[in-house]
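Dear V.,

Thank you for sending over the compound details. I've combined the ligand you provided, pyridoxal-5'-phosphate, with the protein sequence from our construct and run the structure prediction for the complex. I'm sharing the raw inputs here so there's no ambiguity about protonation or stereochemistry in the SMILES, which I know was a concern on your side last time.
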Amino acid sequence: MKKNQLDTPSLVLDIDILDENLRKMRDLTVSAGKKLRPHIKTHKCTKLAVRQLKTGNCAGVCVAKLGEAEALAAAGIDPILITSPVSTPQKIRRLRELARSAPDLAVVIDNLDNARMLDEAMAGIGLDVLIDIDPEMGRTGISYEDVPEFAGALKKFQNLRLRGIQCYAGNLQHIADYGERRRTTLERMRRAAALKNQLGVEIFTGTGTGTSDIDIEIPELTDIQVGSYCVMDSEYTFIGSRDGGENRFFRPALTMLTSVISRNQKGFVTIDAGLKSLYFTPQAPPRVVADGVMRGDYRYEWFGDEHGKLYFPGRKPELGEVFELSLSHCDPTINMHDRMYVIRSGEVIDIWPIDLRGLSQ
Ligand SMILES: Cc1ncc(COP(=O)(O)O)c(C=O)c1O
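Below is the predicted structure of the protein with pyridoxal-5'-phosphate bound, written out as C-alpha coordinates.
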Protein backbone atom coordinates (compact mmCIF):
# COMPACT_ATOMS: atom_id res chain seq x y z
CA MET A 1 0.00 0.00 0.00
CA LYS A 2 1.14 3.53 -0.71
CA LYS A 3 1.27 6.15 2.05
CA ASN A 4 -1.26 8.31 0.25
CA GLN A 5 -3.80 5.44 0.24
CA LEU A 6 -4.00 5.44 4.05
CA ASP A 7 -7.18 6.77 5.60
CA THR A 8 -6.86 9.85 7.78
CA PRO A 9 -6.07 11.05 10.34
CA SER A 10 -3.17 8.65 10.83
CA LEU A 11 0.37 8.79 12.14
CA VAL A 12 3.11 7.93 9.67
CA LEU A 13 6.68 7.19 10.58
CA ASP A 14 9.39 7.68 7.96
CA ILE A 15 11.77 4.89 8.86
CA ASP A 16 14.77 6.39 7.08
CA ILE A 17 14.42 9.74 8.86
CA LEU A 18 13.90 7.88 12.15
CA ASP A 19 17.08 5.86 11.60
CA GLU A 20 19.01 9.01 10.69
CA ASN A 21 17.86 10.67 13.94
CA LEU A 22 18.75 7.56 15.96
CA ARG A 23 22.22 7.37 14.41
CA LYS A 24 22.87 11.09 14.93
CA MET A 25 22.08 10.91 18.64
CA ARG A 26 24.08 7.69 19.03
CA ASP A 27 27.07 9.28 17.30
CA LEU A 28 26.79 12.40 19.45
CA THR A 29 27.00 10.29 22.60
CA VAL A 30 29.77 8.07 21.29
CA SER A 31 31.90 11.08 20.37
CA ALA A 32 31.44 12.49 23.89
CA GLY A 33 32.09 9.18 25.64
CA LYS A 34 28.53 9.02 27.02
CA LYS A 35 25.70 6.49 26.87
CA LEU A 36 22.13 6.92 25.72
CA ARG A 37 19.13 6.06 27.87
CA PRO A 38 16.27 6.86 25.47
CA HIS A 39 13.02 8.00 27.08
CA ILE A 40 10.24 5.71 25.87
CA LYS A 41 7.47 8.01 27.18
CA THR A 42 7.86 9.96 23.92
CA HIS A 43 6.62 7.23 21.61
CA LYS A 44 5.20 4.47 23.82
CA CYS A 45 6.07 1.89 21.18
CA THR A 46 8.02 -1.26 22.06
CA LYS A 47 9.14 -1.78 18.46
CA LEU A 48 10.64 1.69 18.34
CA ALA A 49 12.33 1.10 21.71
CA VAL A 50 13.93 -2.07 20.35
CA ARG A 51 15.19 -0.13 17.31
CA GLN A 52 16.75 2.50 19.58
CA LEU A 53 18.52 -0.21 21.56
CA LYS A 54 19.72 -1.93 18.37
CA THR A 55 21.15 1.35 17.07
CA GLY A 56 23.53 1.02 19.97
CA ASN A 57 25.41 2.71 22.78
CA CYS A 58 22.47 2.51 25.20
CA ALA A 59 22.72 2.09 28.97
CA GLY A 60 19.07 1.02 29.03
CA VAL A 61 15.83 2.93 28.64
CA CYS A 62 13.77 5.41 30.68
CA VAL A 63 10.05 5.50 31.34
CA ALA A 64 7.83 7.97 33.17
CA LYS A 65 5.24 5.48 34.39
CA LEU A 66 5.33 2.14 36.17
CA GLY A 67 2.83 0.74 33.65
CA GLU A 68 5.28 1.52 30.85
CA ALA A 69 8.05 -0.25 32.78
CA GLU A 70 5.87 -3.34 33.27
CA ALA A 71 5.07 -3.54 29.57
CA LEU A 72 8.69 -3.08 28.46
CA ALA A 73 9.98 -5.59 31.02
CA ALA A 74 7.42 -8.12 29.75
CA ALA A 75 8.91 -7.56 26.27
CA GLY A 76 12.36 -8.37 27.65
CA ILE A 77 13.74 -4.82 27.68
CA ASP A 78 16.24 -4.11 30.43
CA PRO A 79 17.58 -2.10 32.32
CA ILE A 80 14.70 0.31 32.89
CA LEU A 81 14.87 3.57 34.83
CA ILE A 82 11.60 5.10 36.07
CA THR A 83 12.24 8.86 35.99
CA SER A 84 9.38 9.96 38.27
CA PRO A 85 8.97 8.93 41.92
CA VAL A 86 6.82 5.84 42.55
CA SER A 87 4.95 6.73 45.71
CA THR A 88 1.41 5.36 45.98
CA PRO A 89 0.98 2.10 47.99
CA GLN A 90 -0.71 0.41 45.02
CA LYS A 91 2.21 1.20 42.74
CA ILE A 92 4.80 0.20 45.30
CA ARG A 93 3.19 -3.26 45.49
CA ARG A 94 3.43 -3.52 41.69
CA LEU A 95 6.99 -2.23 41.78
CA ARG A 96 7.93 -5.06 44.14
CA GLU A 97 6.57 -7.62 41.68
CA LEU A 98 8.37 -5.96 38.80
CA ALA A 99 11.66 -5.79 40.69
CA ARG A 100 11.53 -9.58 41.15
CA SER A 101 11.57 -10.17 37.40
CA ALA A 102 13.66 -7.11 36.40
CA PRO A 103 16.59 -6.96 38.83
CA ASP A 104 18.23 -4.03 36.99
CA LEU A 105 15.17 -1.82 37.48
CA ALA A 106 15.92 1.60 38.98
CA VAL A 107 13.69 4.39 40.21
CA VAL A 108 14.27 8.01 41.18
CA ILE A 109 13.55 9.18 44.68
CA ASP A 110 13.16 12.60 46.31
CA ASN A 111 11.55 11.97 49.72
CA LEU A 112 12.48 10.03 52.86
CA ASP A 113 8.93 8.80 53.53
CA ASN A 114 8.94 7.39 50.04
CA ALA A 115 12.34 5.81 50.78
CA ARG A 116 10.89 4.17 53.90
CA MET A 117 7.95 2.72 51.95
CA LEU A 118 10.20 1.44 49.16
CA ASP A 119 12.67 -0.03 51.65
CA GLU A 120 9.94 -2.01 53.42
CA ALA A 121 8.47 -3.24 50.15
CA MET A 122 11.83 -4.31 48.74
CA ALA A 123 12.88 -6.50 51.68
CA GLY A 124 14.69 -9.51 50.29
CA ILE A 125 14.78 -8.08 46.76
CA GLY A 126 16.56 -4.73 46.86
CA LEU A 127 16.13 -1.78 44.52
CA ASP A 128 18.50 0.60 42.72
CA VAL A 129 17.62 4.24 43.36
CA LEU A 130 18.83 7.54 41.91
CA ILE A 131 18.39 10.84 43.75
CA ASP A 132 16.20 13.14 41.71
CA ILE A 133 17.73 16.62 41.81
CA ASP A 134 15.48 19.61 41.17
CA PRO A 135 17.23 21.99 38.74
CA GLU A 136 15.05 24.82 40.07
CA MET A 137 12.12 23.65 37.99
CA GLY A 138 9.99 22.80 41.02
CA ARG A 139 8.38 19.66 39.57
CA THR A 140 9.99 16.74 41.39
CA GLY A 141 13.38 16.35 43.02
CA ILE A 142 15.21 17.84 45.96
CA SER A 143 17.17 21.06 45.99
CA TYR A 144 20.92 20.96 45.33
CA GLU A 145 21.58 22.10 48.91
CA ASP A 146 19.61 19.22 50.46
CA VAL A 147 21.19 16.44 48.39
CA PRO A 148 24.15 15.55 50.69
CA GLU A 149 21.97 15.19 53.78
CA PHE A 150 19.36 13.22 51.84
CA ALA A 151 22.02 10.88 50.47
CA GLY A 152 23.35 10.35 54.01
CA ALA A 153 19.87 9.52 55.29
CA LEU A 154 19.33 7.00 52.48
CA LYS A 155 22.23 4.91 53.84
CA LYS A 156 20.11 3.55 56.66
CA PHE A 157 17.74 1.82 54.23
CA GLN A 158 19.25 -1.61 53.72
CA ASN A 159 17.11 -2.57 50.74
CA LEU A 160 17.85 0.54 48.68
CA ARG A 161 21.10 0.84 46.70
CA LEU A 162 22.04 4.44 45.87
CA ARG A 163 23.44 4.21 42.34
CA GLY A 164 23.46 7.83 41.25
CA ILE A 165 21.64 11.07 40.50
CA GLN A 166 19.18 12.34 37.92
CA CYS A 167 18.95 16.00 36.93
CA TYR A 168 16.46 16.80 34.18
CA ALA A 169 15.88 20.49 33.48
CA GLY A 170 12.66 20.28 31.46
CA ASN A 171 12.15 24.03 31.89
CA LEU A 172 15.29 24.79 29.86
CA GLN A 173 14.79 22.43 26.92
CA HIS A 174 12.77 24.82 24.78
CA ILE A 175 14.54 28.12 25.49
CA ALA A 176 14.56 29.61 22.01
CA ASP A 177 17.86 31.47 22.27
CA TYR A 178 20.72 28.99 21.98
CA GLY A 179 23.16 31.08 24.02
CA GLU A 180 20.70 31.46 26.89
CA ARG A 181 19.85 27.75 26.76
CA ARG A 182 23.53 26.90 26.87
CA ARG A 183 24.36 29.23 29.75
CA THR A 184 21.47 28.09 31.97
CA THR A 185 21.79 24.37 31.37
CA LEU A 186 25.56 24.34 31.95
CA GLU A 187 25.08 26.21 35.22
CA ARG A 188 22.39 23.77 36.50
CA MET A 189 24.07 20.61 35.26
CA ARG A 190 27.49 21.61 36.65
CA ARG A 191 25.96 22.01 40.09
CA ALA A 192 24.58 18.48 39.79
CA ALA A 193 27.98 17.26 38.56
CA ALA A 194 29.66 18.65 41.69
CA LEU A 195 27.19 16.65 43.80
CA LYS A 196 27.95 13.49 41.85
CA ASN A 197 31.63 13.95 42.73
CA GLN A 198 30.82 14.68 46.36
CA LEU A 199 28.63 11.56 46.73
CA GLY A 200 31.00 9.35 44.76
CA VAL A 201 28.14 7.66 42.89
CA GLU A 202 28.37 5.95 39.55
CA ILE A 203 25.46 7.35 37.47
CA PHE A 204 24.61 10.91 36.48
CA THR A 205 21.69 10.84 34.06
CA GLY A 206 19.67 13.75 32.70
CA THR A 207 19.14 16.01 29.69
CA GLY A 208 16.48 16.30 27.03
CA THR A 209 16.70 16.79 23.28
CA GLY A 210 17.00 20.60 23.60
CA THR A 211 20.17 20.64 25.69
CA SER A 212 21.69 17.29 24.72
CA ASP A 213 24.42 18.76 22.49
CA ILE A 214 25.44 21.09 25.32
CA ASP A 215 25.18 18.85 28.38
CA ILE A 216 27.40 16.18 26.87
CA GLU A 217 30.31 18.58 27.45
CA ILE A 218 30.00 17.93 31.18
CA PRO A 219 32.53 15.23 32.09
CA GLU A 220 30.56 13.82 35.03
CA LEU A 221 27.39 13.20 33.00
CA THR A 222 27.23 9.46 32.27
CA ASP A 223 24.16 9.18 30.06
CA ILE A 224 21.45 11.25 28.42
CA GLN A 225 17.77 10.43 28.76
CA VAL A 226 16.56 12.08 25.56
CA GLY A 227 13.10 11.36 24.16
CA SER A 228 11.79 13.59 21.38
CA TYR A 229 14.88 13.48 19.14
CA CYS A 230 13.76 10.23 17.52
CA VAL A 231 10.52 11.51 15.98
CA MET A 232 10.78 15.28 16.61
CA ASP A 233 8.04 17.90 16.62
CA SER A 234 7.42 21.59 15.88
CA GLU A 235 8.24 22.68 19.44
CA TYR A 236 11.78 21.38 19.03
CA THR A 237 12.16 22.56 15.45
CA PHE A 238 11.32 26.12 16.47
CA ILE A 239 14.09 26.47 19.08
CA GLY A 240 17.26 28.14 17.89
CA SER A 241 20.13 25.90 16.86
CA ARG A 242 23.84 26.20 17.60
CA ASP A 243 24.41 27.78 14.17
CA GLY A 244 21.40 30.11 14.40
CA GLY A 245 18.07 29.57 12.65
CA GLU A 246 15.69 26.70 13.23
CA ASN A 247 16.86 23.48 14.76
CA ARG A 248 17.11 21.11 11.81
CA PHE A 249 19.71 18.67 13.15
CA PHE A 250 17.00 16.11 13.95
CA ARG A 251 14.24 15.95 11.36
CA PRO A 252 10.51 15.25 11.81
CA ALA A 253 10.20 11.49 11.30
CA LEU A 254 6.66 11.17 12.58
CA THR A 255 3.91 13.17 10.92
CA MET A 256 0.16 13.12 10.65
CA LEU A 257 -1.79 12.55 7.48
CA THR A 258 -4.97 14.60 7.36
CA SER A 259 -7.60 15.19 4.64
CA VAL A 260 -9.60 18.16 3.53
CA ILE A 261 -13.22 17.39 4.49
CA SER A 262 -14.81 20.74 3.63
CA ARG A 263 -13.75 23.63 1.36
CA ASN A 264 -16.69 26.02 1.51
CA GLN A 265 -14.98 28.83 3.37
CA LYS A 266 -12.85 31.64 1.99
CA GLY A 267 -9.14 31.50 2.75
CA PHE A 268 -9.00 28.16 4.56
CA VAL A 269 -10.12 24.55 4.24
CA THR A 270 -11.34 22.32 7.07
CA ILE A 271 -9.27 19.21 7.76
CA ASP A 272 -9.99 16.12 9.87
CA ALA A 273 -7.27 16.62 12.52
CA GLY A 274 -8.46 18.35 15.69
CA LEU A 275 -7.61 18.05 19.36
CA LYS A 276 -8.63 14.39 19.58
CA SER A 277 -5.93 13.34 17.17
CA LEU A 278 -3.40 16.16 17.18
CA TYR A 279 -2.19 17.87 20.34
CA PHE A 280 -1.87 21.58 19.67
CA THR A 281 0.26 24.36 21.14
CA PRO A 282 -0.19 27.82 19.60
CA GLN A 283 3.51 28.66 20.13
CA ALA A 284 4.53 25.75 17.90
CA PRO A 285 1.60 24.83 15.66
CA PRO A 286 1.75 21.83 13.33
CA ARG A 287 3.26 22.68 9.97
CA VAL A 288 2.70 21.20 6.56
CA VAL A 289 5.60 18.87 5.75
CA ALA A 290 6.60 18.05 2.21
CA ASP A 291 9.49 15.67 1.45
CA GLY A 292 10.64 15.80 5.07
CA VAL A 293 10.85 19.62 5.13
CA MET A 294 8.49 21.90 7.09
CA ARG A 295 6.80 24.55 4.96
CA GLY A 296 6.15 28.02 6.32
CA ASP A 297 3.56 29.03 3.71
CA TYR A 298 0.63 26.95 5.05
CA ARG A 299 -0.82 27.65 8.49
CA TYR A 300 -2.67 25.20 10.74
CA GLU A 301 -5.11 26.50 13.32
CA TRP A 302 -6.91 24.45 15.91
CA PHE A 303 -10.65 24.21 15.12
CA GLY A 304 -12.15 22.10 17.94
CA ASP A 305 -12.02 18.45 18.94
CA GLU A 306 -12.30 16.93 15.48
CA HIS A 307 -11.22 19.64 13.04
CA GLY A 308 -8.43 21.95 12.04
CA LYS A 309 -8.26 24.96 9.75
CA LEU A 310 -5.64 24.95 7.06
CA TYR A 311 -4.77 28.33 5.52
CA PHE A 312 -3.12 27.82 2.16
CA PRO A 313 -0.97 29.82 -0.24
CA GLY A 314 -2.19 30.06 -3.84
CA ARG A 315 -4.38 27.23 -5.11
CA LYS A 316 -7.26 26.14 -2.87
CA PRO A 317 -6.85 22.48 -1.84
CA GLU A 318 -9.37 19.99 -3.24
CA LEU A 319 -11.88 17.99 -1.22
CA GLY A 320 -10.12 14.82 -0.02
CA GLU A 321 -6.67 16.24 -0.66
CA VAL A 322 -4.23 14.81 1.85
CA PHE A 323 -1.68 16.89 3.78
CA GLU A 324 1.13 15.79 6.01
CA LEU A 325 1.53 17.78 9.24
CA SER A 326 4.36 17.94 11.74
CA LEU A 327 3.30 17.42 15.36
CA SER A 328 3.18 20.36 17.79
CA HIS A 329 4.38 18.12 20.58
CA CYS A 330 5.05 14.47 19.89
CA ASP A 331 4.32 12.78 23.25
CA PRO A 332 0.65 13.71 23.80
CA THR A 333 -0.20 13.29 20.11
CA ILE A 334 1.21 9.77 19.95
CA ASN A 335 -0.67 8.84 23.13
CA MET A 336 -3.94 9.41 21.21
CA HIS A 337 -3.23 6.78 18.54
CA ASP A 338 -3.21 2.98 18.40
CA ARG A 339 -0.57 2.55 15.74
CA MET A 340 1.95 4.22 13.50
CA TYR A 341 2.32 3.31 9.85
CA VAL A 342 5.95 2.74 8.95
CA ILE A 343 6.86 4.23 5.58
CA ARG A 344 9.83 3.86 3.26
CA SER A 345 9.92 5.74 -0.06
CA GLY A 346 6.19 6.35 0.03
CA GLU A 347 5.24 2.67 0.70
CA VAL A 348 3.73 1.35 3.94
CA ILE A 349 6.20 -1.34 5.00
CA ASP A 350 4.97 -2.10 8.53
CA ILE A 351 2.52 -1.13 11.25
CA TRP A 352 3.88 -0.57 14.76
CA PRO A 353 1.40 -0.74 17.63
CA ILE A 354 1.63 2.10 20.15
CA ASP A 355 1.31 -0.59 22.76
CA LEU A 356 2.16 1.50 25.83
CA ARG A 357 -0.51 4.03 24.91
CA GLY A 358 -2.74 4.98 27.84
CA LEU A 359 -0.52 3.26 30.42
CA SER A 360 -0.61 6.32 32.61
CA GLN A 361 -0.51 4.64 36.04
C1 LIG B 1 12.61 13.16 33.32
C2 LIG B 1 12.67 13.34 31.84
N1 LIG B 1 13.77 12.96 31.18
C3 LIG B 1 13.88 13.09 29.85
C4 LIG B 1 12.84 13.61 29.08
C5 LIG B 1 13.01 13.68 27.58
O1 LIG B 1 13.01 14.93 27.11
P1 LIG B 1 12.91 15.31 25.55
O2 LIG B 1 11.65 14.76 25.01
O3 LIG B 1 12.90 16.77 25.63
O4 LIG B 1 14.12 14.76 24.90
C6 LIG B 1 11.69 14.05 29.74
C7 LIG B 1 10.60 14.67 28.96
O5 LIG B 1 9.70 15.34 29.43
C8 LIG B 1 11.57 13.90 31.14
O6 LIG B 1 10.48 14.28 31.81
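A first observation: Residues 39, 42, 83, 168, 170, 173, 208-210, 225-229 surround pyridoxal-5'-phosphate (CB under 6 Å).

Warm regards,
I. M.
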